[in-house]
Specification:
This protein is of the alpha+beta class and 294 residues long. It has helices at 74-82, 105-114, 173-180, 189-197, 228-241, 259-271, 290-293, and strands at 2-6, 10-15, 22-29, 36-40, 45-48, 54-56, 62-64, 69-70, 88-92, 116-122, 124-128, 132-136, 139-144, 150-157, 163-170, 186-188, 210-212, 248-249, 251-255, 276-280. The longest helix has 14 residues, at 228-241. It is globular, with a radius of gyration of 18 Å. Bound molecules: zinc ion. Residues 74-75, 185, 232, 236 line the site of zinc ion.
């Protein structure tokens, strides 16, 4: 299987979560071995999506060069990864990826519109060869060797609507579109009010997140899935691990994982070459991956 880029340029516009202002996003083809590259046209910053580019993980995954940054890259990366795209240029005229509806669905639509183009260099796969984990009290994120990629997540929130949820996702592009891509981010009204009092999350509304008070969901339309919360955590994990830069062959497992733990996991994996192996896609044919990442 060959490396993939998008077939043509596609553009959209949406609100940035933090500043609440409209931001234009453009997706364009890139040549083989370029990877996923972000460009901020307002300040002229070009930066590659990689664990070494991450500068903050407290509310979203943020990359930067020490001077300028781009926030909330994870939902877009999640969709790009799931569509099997290796090389793409993402241009933004502001400091964040637009939040759209708080899920990956709008980015899937953009990628459907852009189409795919094969490049003349083979795709690589990052194969996890031994267990790697990051633990923080009861919380953990972990990858284990596997013949087919999967993401297994469990959360336990002391909230009557969320509570304990777990979901096991056998990764495929089709499965991603149907089960994961539409799951929205969520937040608690008191946190949103606190952030907005500090001039943050100004674009946050019921149009781009599930918002809960102490007892109930405030969105008039309710949930898209009964386990939308845990499915969104899987959407985030796929996006955060996409920073590794290649399709990942592993079982990912987490209890109460976060952007921060996912980021630490990517660094932990890359720290020791005994943890993984990068192989030509053609060499792992026996694992029947082509339909998974096609
Ligand atoms: Zn998210």
């Amino acid at each position: 299987m060959r490396q993939i880029t998008v077939a043509k340029k596609t553009q959209s516009v949406g609100i940035g979560l933090h500043k609440g202002e409209p931001i234009e996003i453009t997706l364009e083809p890139l040549e083989a071995n370029s990877g996923i590259v972000f460009y901020r046209s307002d300040v002229g910053m070009s930066i590659k999506a990689a664990p070494s580019s991450v500068v903050n993980t407290s509310n979203a995954t943020v990359i930067g060069d020490g001077q300028n940054y781009i926030s909330t890259i994870e939902h877009l990366l999640s969709a790009i990864y799931s569509y099997g795209i290796d090389n793409i240029l993402i241009t933004l005229n502001g400091a964040e990826v637009p939040v759209m509806d708080g899920s990956g669905a709008s980015f899937c639509m953009m990628l459907d519109e852009a189409g795919k183009r094969e490049l003349d260099i083979n795709k690589s796969v990052l194969i996890i060869t031994r267990e790697v984990e990051v633990v923080d009290g009861k919380k953990f994120v972990r990858v284990k060797p596997s013949k087919k990629p999967s993401y297994n997540f469990e959360i336990d929130f002391p909230h009557p609507i969320i509570g304990k949820q777990d979901y096991q996702f056998r990764f495929s592009k089709r499965g991603y579109i149907e089960e994961i891509s539409r799951a929205r981010t969520f937040g608690f009204l008191k946190d949103v009010q606190y952030l907005q009092s500090r001039g943050l999350a100004l674009g946050g509304s019921l149009d781009n997140a599930i918002v809960l008070d102490d007892k109930k969901i405030l969105n008039p339309g309710g949930l898209r899935f009964k386990d939308e919360f845990v499915k969104h955590k899987i959407l985030d994990a796929i996006g955060d691990l996409a920073l590794l830069g290649a399709p990942l062959l592993a079982d990912y497992e987490s209890f109460a994982g976060s952007h921060n733990l996912n980021h630490l996991l990517t660094k932990e994996i890359l720290k020791d070459p005994n943890n993984y192996e990068v192989r030509d896609f053609a060499m792992v044919k026996e694992l029947e991956l082509s339909e998974v990442f096609a």
